[in-house]
Design goal:
The chain has about 220 residues and is α+β, with helices and mostly antiparallel strands. It folds into three domains: about 5-45 and about 130-155, no CATH class; about 60-125, no CATH class; about 165-220. It is built from seven helices and seven strands, in the order H-E-H-E-E-E-E-E-H-E-H-H-H-H. It has helices spanning about 5-15, 30-35, 95-100, 125-135, 135-145, 150-160, 170-215, and strands spanning about 20, 40-45, 60-65, 70, 75-85, 90, 115-120. Strands 3-4-5-6-7 form a five-stranded antiparallel sheet, with no helix packed on it. Strands 1-2 form a two-stranded parallel sheet. The longest helix has about 45 residues, at about 170-215. The protein is elongated, with a radius of gyration of 27 Å.
């Protein structure tokens, strides 16, 4: 729900962004569509399918684009029925066939003996994001996420008590979180400023340590 506002705010400030790296929770048809249509590349991890344990795997239901139907693991046809308000195209099986199917217990628990498969109208964008995940660009950019933003979350939880909040209400909690991240940004600014001041001295310190080491351990000629 919060993606659109944050995405517009960040891309407006940094229009040169070419790759958008997100967590698996953001791997939805609308988000993938918005990023790709904006001319950017979505970099997202594998998202585990939310299917019932013990049933047929999701990839056993194959979509036939030419005939616009779904083929079940027993090679029966699920025909297109309707498109619901959520933007999903519904494909339903023939109850008379499913009633005598030997693997019906692995497929559906419907009393009508009917299997329903839903495919989003923008599923092609999700498949394109899945293809990018296997490329060197997708692997490299997502690997950077755990080194940057995930470390910020970890520091907030472990060092700044962000695992819980003592406040109630959206306004109070928002102000509390902003104060936490302001403190983290000030700490990061102080560290970077100190490193910049220390940089000219590093060469001198290295030379002193090197000369001290050779003085203690002279190299035989």
């Amino acid at each position: 729900m919060a993606f659109d506002g944050i995405y517009e705010q960040v891309t407006k400030r940094f229009p040169e962004i070419g790759v958008v790296t997100l967590d698996a929770g953001y791997k939805t048809p609308w988000i993938c569509k918005k990023i790709i249509e904006d001319g950017r590349i979505p970099s997202m991890p594998y998202k585990r399918p939310m299917t019932k344990a013990g049933n047929h795997e999701w990839w056993k239901y194959v979509y036939d684009e030419y005939y616009d139907c779904v083929i079940c693991p027993e090679y029966n046809i699920l025909k297109y029925s309707t498109t619901n308000k959520g933007g999903y195209r519904e494909y339903k099986s023939d109850p008379s066939i499913c009633k005598h199917c030997p693997t019906r217990h692995l497929c559906t628990a419907s009393k009508q003996c009917q299997k329903l498969v839903s495919l989003h109208i923008w599923r092609d964008f999700v498949e394109r994001a899945e293809d990018i995940r296997h490329t060197p660009l997708g692997k490299g950019t997502y690997a950077r996420r755990k080194e940057t933003i995930e470390r910020v979350f970890a520091d907030a939880k472990e060092k700044h008590a962000m695992r819980y909040t003592p406040y109630r209400g959206l306004t109070a909690v928002s102000n509390w979180v902003k104060l936490k991240y302001a403190a983290m940004n000030l700490k990061k600014l102080a560290i970077h400023s100190w490193e910049e001041r220390l940089a000219p001295l590093r060469g001198r310190i290295f030379m002193l340590l090197q000369s001290f080491f050779y003085a203690k351990n002279p190299i035989p000629v």
